[in-house]
Amino acid sequence: MVAKIPGHFQRVTLIDYIILGVLGFFCVLGIRRGCLRQLTDISAILGGLYIASRYHAGLGHHLGSIFRIPPDYQAIAGFIVIWALILLSVMGLGMLLHRIVHLTALGPVNRILGGVLGGIKGLGIMIPCLVVFLALETPGFQESAIIRYTMPWIQPIASACLDAAIPFGPDWYPRLNP
């Protein structure tokens, strides 16, 4: 007996394959990297940006006096140095934790959660792109089986994001606003 495919999945388009490919790529990447390593990488990037944005001027001044950096570039140099040092140290810690966890029985759990986190990361990258393409009424997106199936969940999020991003009104994205 052959299972019947639901009506909204009978016509799969190229856009559906691209969406599934991107999500699959991020899930596989997440499984390979593991949850701990992904979390430390994300926290290294965001934490490094935050700390560098707070303390770049002071370090930039010191770097400028030591390395004769022009005043216009001192803050940039301070930002890059702080961010790179934090990024390297936290990512190194993440690699160490990843190896320690894989020596224990938690290795498979770390990989499974890494796949879930990878899928979430893929969605975090895909949803803003999909919102823009839907708002611009890109041809082919309305025929996508995945978009038709997920539109009831995406529409409120997309409308809220577009309203927050464009306070002047929803005139240019009529399909997302009810």
Descriptive report:
This protein is mostly helical and 178 residues long. The protein has a domain at 11-126. Helix content is 76%, strand content 0%. It contains five helices and no strands. The protein starts with 13 loop residues before the first helix and ends in a 13-residue tail after the last helix. Mean pLDDT is 85; it is low at 173-178.
The count of β-strands is 0
Number of helices: 5
Main sheet makeup: none
Q: Please, what is the average pLDDT? A: 85
Using only C-alpha atoms, the radius of gyration works out to 22 Å
Task: Estimate percent helicity.
Answer: over 70%
DSSP strand (E) fraction?
Answer: under 5%
* Cα distance spanning the termini: 41 Å
Given helix and strand content, the structural type is mainly alpha
Coarse morphology: flat
Query: What sequence of helices (H) and strands (E) makes up the elements?
Result: HHHHH
Flag low-confidence runs.
173-178
Quick gist of this model?
The chain has 178 residues and is mainly α. The protein has helices at 14-33, 35-67, 71-102, 107-135, 145-165. It has 5 helices and no strands.
